[in-house]
C-alpha cells in the first residue's frame, strides 16, 4: 500500500495550478506575469517587483543540508501552520475523515481540521504528560488519516521518546500518516526523528525557523516527508508562499555566521531554563514547574489568574494556559534574555511577598 492511498482521491487527481514563475523557464525579459517592470523604492536589490520562486532553490538546499534530507523530501511554507493546513486538506475529506491528537497540545492541529470539517479524535496524554501509545493506537479508526505528535510538547514541554515514536509509526503503517511536530527540538537533548522518514513512508516531520532560529516574523516552516507526500503537498500549495524578504532573512540565518549565533543563543536558553526551573520552584505560591525540553516552562500557581494579571500590570506578558486539560492552574513562561528572566523572578518574588503580607 502506498502512503498516497491515504490521501483524498480528488487531490491525487487534481491538476495543480501552474504559476507564471513556474513557467518562466529562465527567460531574460519577463512579460508573462503582469508584474511591474520597475523595482519599488527601497527594494535594496531584492527584486520585489517580481513574484518569488514558489520553492526557492537556495533555501531548499540550505534547509535540506540542515535537516539531513533530500531536496525532494522537503516542502517550505509559511510556518508550520501552513504545512499542517495543507496536510489536513490533502488527506481529510470534509465530513468523512478525522485527525487524532493528544491534548494538551498545539491548537492548530484541531483548528485546521475543524476548518476542513474533519473530525478531531482526542486521546489525552498521561497525567505526567507522556504519550499513552496504547490508548492512542486503540483509538485509531478507519476514518483517521493523520495522527499528530508534538515533541517537545507545547504547552507542557515534555518530549516523546524515540522508542515510542517508532512504535507508533510501525503500528500506523497502512493506516494513517504520522506527523511529528518538532518545533522545539533544537532546545531538547533528544535528537530529531527525521532520519526515520527513509524507513517509514507514512512518517512526516514538521520543523520551523520561528523558535531556535529567531525568525518568527519571517514565517518559514518545513515539512519533511517522503517524496510522494511532498509532491502531493506541492500540488495544492499557494502559488507564491514565500516572500522574497523572508527568504533573504532565512538564508542569512542559515549562513555559517547565522548558525553559530543560533547555537550560542540556544545554549543560553538551555542554561537560563535550568536556572528558572530551580528559582521558580523555590517561590511560595508556585505548586510545580514542569520539566521542559523546550524554550519555555509551564508553571503551576496557587492562583494563576491573579499572577497573570499582576505580571501584565508590570509589563510582563506570559501565556495563560489554564484552558488546557491538566493545566488549569498553569501559566507558560518563555525563556527570555538573562535580564528579562531576572526581571520576571524579581516581579514574581514581589508578588508572592505581597500575598504573604496580605
Automatic annotation (TrEMBL):
Catalyzed reactions: L-histidinol phosphate + 2-oxoglutarate = 3-(imidazol-4-yl)-2-oxopropyl phosphate + L-glutamate
Single annotated GO MF: histidinol-phosphate transaminase activity
EC category name: transferase
Modified positions (N6-(pyridoxal phosphate)lysine) in chain numbering: 211
Annotated EC: 2.6.1.9
Pathway listed: Amino-acid biosynthesis; L-histidine biosynthesis; L-histidine from 5-phospho-alpha-D-ribose 1-diphosphate: step 7/9
Residue ranges annotated for the Aminotransferase class I/classII large domain, each copy included: 47-346
Gene3D superfamilies (UniProt xref): Aspartate Aminotransferase, domain 1, Type I PLP-dependent aspartate aminotransferase-like (Major domain)
Pfam families (alphabetical): Aminotran_1_2
Keywords: Amino-acid biosynthesis, Aminotransferase, Histidine biosynthesis, Pyridoxal phosphate, Transferase
Cofactor(s) listed in the protein's UniProt record: pyridoxal 5'-phosphate
Family the entry assigns: Belongs to the class-II pyridoxal-phosphate-dependent aminotransferase family. Histidinol-phosphate aminotransferase subfamily.
Quaternary organization: Homodimer.
Protein name: Histidinol-phosphate aminotransferase
Organism: Dyella caseinilytica
Gene, per the UniProt record: hisC
Amino acid at each position: 500500500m502506498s502512503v498516497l492511498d491515504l490521501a483524498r482521491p480528488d487531490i491525487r487527481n487534481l491538476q495543480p495550478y501552474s504559476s507564471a514563475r513556474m513557467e518562466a523557464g529562465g527567460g531574460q525579459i519577463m512579460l508573462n506575469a503582469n508584474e511591474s517592470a520597475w523595482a519599488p523604492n527601497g527594494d535594496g536589490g531584492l527584486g520585489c517587483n517580481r513574484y518569488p520562486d514558489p520553492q526557492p532553490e537556495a533555501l531548499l538546499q540550505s534547509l535540506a543540508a540542515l535537516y539531513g534530507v533530500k531536496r525532494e523530501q522537503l516542502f517550505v511554507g509559511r510556518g508550520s501552520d501552513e504545512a499542517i493546513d495543507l496536510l489536513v486538506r490533502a488527506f481529510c475529506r470534509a465530513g468523512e475523515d478525522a485527525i487524532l491528537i493528544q491534548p494538551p497540545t498545539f491548537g492548530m492541529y484541531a483548528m485546521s481540521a475543524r476548518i476542513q470539517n474533519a473530525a478531531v479524535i482526542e486521546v489525552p496524554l498521561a497525567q505526567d504528560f507522556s504519550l499513552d501509545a496504547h490508548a492512542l493506537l486503540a483509538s485509531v479508526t478507519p476514518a483517521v488519516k493523520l495522527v499528530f505528535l508534538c515533541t517537545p510538547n507545547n504547552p507542557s514541554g515534555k518530549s516523546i521518546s524515540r522508542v515510542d515514536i517508532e512504535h507508533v509509526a510501525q503500528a500506523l503503517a497502512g493506516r494513517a500518516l504520522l506527523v511529528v511536530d518538532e518545533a522545539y527540538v533544537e532546545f531538547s537533548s533528544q535528537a530529531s526523528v527525521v532520519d526515520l522518514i527513509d524507513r517509514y513512508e507514512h512518517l512526516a516531520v514538521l520543523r520551523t525557523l520561528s523558535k531556535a532560529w529567531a525568525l518568527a516574523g519571517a514565517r518559514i516552516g518545513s515539512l519533511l516527508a517522503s517524496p510522494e507526500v511532498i509532491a502531493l503537498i506541492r500540488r495544492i500549495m499557494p502559488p507564491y508562499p514565500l516572500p522574497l524578504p523572508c527568504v533573504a532573512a532565512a538564508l542569512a540565518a542559515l549562513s555559517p555566521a547565522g548558525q553559530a549565533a543560533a547555537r550560542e543563543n540556544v545554549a543560553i536558553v538551555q542554561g537560563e531554563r535550568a536556572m528558572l526551573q530551580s528559582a521558580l520552584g523555590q517561590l511560595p505560591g508556585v505548586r510545580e514547574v514542569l520539566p521542559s525540553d523546550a524554550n519555555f516552562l509551564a508553571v503551576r500557581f496557587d492562583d494563576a489568574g491573579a499572577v497573570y494579571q499582576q505580571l501584565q500590570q508590570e509589563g510582563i506578558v506570559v501565556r495563560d494556559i489554564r484552558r488546557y486539560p491538566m493545566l488549569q492552574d498553569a501559566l507558560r513562561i518563555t525563556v527570555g534574555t538573562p535580564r528579562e528572566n531576572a526581571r520576571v523572578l524579581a516581579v514574581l518574588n514581589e508578588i508572592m511577598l505581597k500575598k504573604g503580607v496580605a
